[in-house]
Amino acid sequence: MKITPEHNERMAKMTFASVYPHYVTKVEGKGRTKEELHEVITWLTGFDDKKLQELIEEKVTFETFFNRANLNPLANLIKGVICGYRIEEIDNPLTKQVRYLDKLVDELAKGKKMEKILRTS
After folding, report:
1. Which of 9, 12, 50, 53 can bridge 63 by disulfide, Cβ–Cβ 3.0-4.6 Å?
2. CB-CB neighbours of 57 under 10 Å
């Protein structure tokens, strides 16, 4: 699928707080925990539980969320297709970061082992 400038803009303006409950529902519905979800988010962004809660309450956009994040240097090892988009082919850095998060949540929900989700090298 082709990513348009409008798609990138929509991703930037979407709030993390609006998507977070869907992440929780998705992973819990597949037998994983909110704690595991937070572990995945922390690995990617560097945010601890307290900071994550602050960002949710502040209703930050994904643009602000990722601007404040300390992205894991191994995030570029996240590859594959998510929501019809091949992550490696996404040019817009913010859209790519959002898709990194989507992919990690998807892998968690699919039952992948945490060691595989949290890329080590």
Report:
1. 12
2. 9
